[in-house]
Amino acid sequence: MNMSRLISLFFQGSLVKRIAAGLVLGILVALITPMLQPTLGFNLAEKVGVLGQIFVRSLRAVAPLLIFVLVMAAIANKKVGSKTSMKSIIVLYLVGTFLAALVAVIAGFLFPTEVALSVKEDISAAPKGVGTVLLDLIFNMVDNPLNALFKANFIGVLTWSIGLGLAFRHASDATKTVISDISEAVSKIVYVVISFAPIGVFGLVSETLADKGLMALGGYIQLLSVLVGSMLFVAFVVNPVLVFWKIRRNPYPLVWTCLRESGVTAFFTRSSAANIPVNINLAKRLNLDEETYSVSIPLGATINMAGAAITITILTLAAVHTLGIEVSFGSAILLSLVASLCACGASGVAGGSLLLIPLACSLFGISDDVAAQMIGVGFIIGILQDSTETALNSSTDVLFTAAACIADEGKNNNN
Predict the structure, then answer these.
(1) Model pTM greater than 0.85?
(2) 84 near 295, Cβ under 8 Å?
(3) Distance CA 232, CA 243 (A)
């Protein structure tokens, strides 16, 4: 393979294929490093591991700013629908996201997973109960906004972004446009950072496997299994129950239609935003109310994030189990709430939910160093994880819209 072809694998074409290439090359470097070290005089995997460290530092740098501007812009520019069905859809979005996070918490405890991390930390100061967690949460919420950004206090960043977003709702349209433009600019920077994910994964895999051995892959496989299993459970059990609650009849024909025609497309595009036209076309063919789905589907691409809630929760619990932190039931429920809130602000770019993991990790006193490593782990397994997450998120947008519209139509016919 010549150098130009190697470069094209990393910087052109599908991100999934590029990350896969980085993953394979990282494994190869880890395998050949012991044989080459006597000849080269240095550890090759350790040297290329610097690439992974740079990628992780870049993620740490951009994550607080991304959360701040993304949430602020979304709230400042939010337009509330006036139709009754919109209220039902929003309730389904929020309840579905919370239940997905709760399923992930249960799965995380039933199948505790540890992953190989290069940084261990003292857990003697880790919170032991929900009271301590809530007190730390309040202190972080009232932190100075600049200090919150500089020190990556994600709870403080989220609090100030919500407050400013609500305040800017009363600003002029020109001001709101500027805020949206800033959000777009930061999102583009995030896109550039994530475009280096293949190189970051290459360095992370090389260094981790050379240090921990191929057994480290076992943790990744188990972690991916818990993630995908939780998402499938939500898609085929939790969501049908919610739909049945609304329409009072067999939900599976509608569930299968949405998964087949929306979920499959979203699996390959890996973008809820890019799948909006597909969902709108499906809603039209389902004869749903146009005034409702034209608002609910784009809104769902922003706040209906069951898959993201699962990703945030499972990876946070993986960090908790790896560090040996004891988590009470109350703290786990709080994690479900925080994961749901985090998921509603997930970025529209591929792997965007991974950037919100530090916010959930901060609940348990986990440093941003370890949280950033968990983001790196997320990118390693993201070939399947992110595609499955997006398929769940996007298909649920049209599923819940259809359920609410069908339920309202049934009420109108009965009247």
Answers:
(1) no
(2) no
(3) 16
